[in-house]
Amino acid sequence: MKGPLFYSKILLFGEYGIIKDSKGLSIPYNFYNGALKIDDELSDTAKSSNLELTRFSDYLKTLNQNQDIKVQFDVDALQHDISKGLYFDSSIPQGYGVGSSGALVAAIYDKYAIDKITVLENLGREKLLTLKSIFATMESFFHGKSSGLDPLNSYLSLPILINSKEDLEPAGIPSQTSSGKGAVFLLDSGIVGETAPMVNIFMENMKQEGFKNMIKTKFVKHTDACVENFLTGDFKSLFKNIKSLSNTVLDNFKPMIPAKFHDLWKKGIETNDYYLKLCGSGGGGYILGFTEDFEKAKKALSGYKLEVVYTF
């Protein structure tokens, strides 16, 4: 057995801000994907995935008894498949901020949810919010608190615009241009990041008045502007706002930026060759980069592994 493919995602804008009702924009990233598979002979990686699915199935069993979640799972079928050698066959790197657990959650929901909401339905706001809420509860098994956005993106395989916690919609993003010099890219930090500790640091910081104020007056303001600029294809304003956002993150989110990248981050702001921002919760994994001239950014970042996500 091999199930359908579910793709990784990139939250272009909105990391941390969406916890505090900023806008956000999440896009599928088809370079990485995963699918449920059953094999008789399991590799070590597949065995460890199979074991994780065993624990996850126990968690879903408890969710079935929970009146708050608007779905039931066929846990018997899932556990039967696990005993047969079910695992999640994935190329999505874990701890890199591109939604490895989100794709797994989407795949499990797709295969084992009873009376699931399908992608073929007319997905109005209510159904999207229901899906997001189900996915948040499912994904919290993997790293504490989840917005449910990663699995939603993976499940729908569409760009999603987050206007606020209670208002999201599928989004149309400007078409990519192959002739354009500008690019959004991923920079590989070479370090695996963990979501839960980073989110905990953020939540602790939010108890301080100064930090809370900075989130509202600077971080959310720049994030919202970047989302608007990107969706309308106003790239001139986008780079002005990305520079401000990159600066704000460097000043206020230092624990989320691996120490050896602090200078590189600053260099981008000073030279305007590229601007860096967090990809997901930070602490490692990928760092997201924006540049008006990818060739220039490539030279400035020679020695680092870059992957282009979007060109304009």
UniProtKB/TrEMBL annotation:
It comes from Psychroflexus salarius. Keywords: ATP-binding, Kinase, Nucleotide-binding, Transferase. One of its GO terms (molecular function) is ATP binding. Residues 86-150 form the GHMP kinase N-terminal domain. This is Mevalonate kinase. InterPro entries: GHMP_kinase_C_sf, GHMP_kinase_N_dom, HddA/FKP, Ribosomal_Su5_D2-typ_SF, Ribsml_uS5_D2-typ_fold_subgr. It comes from the Bacteria.
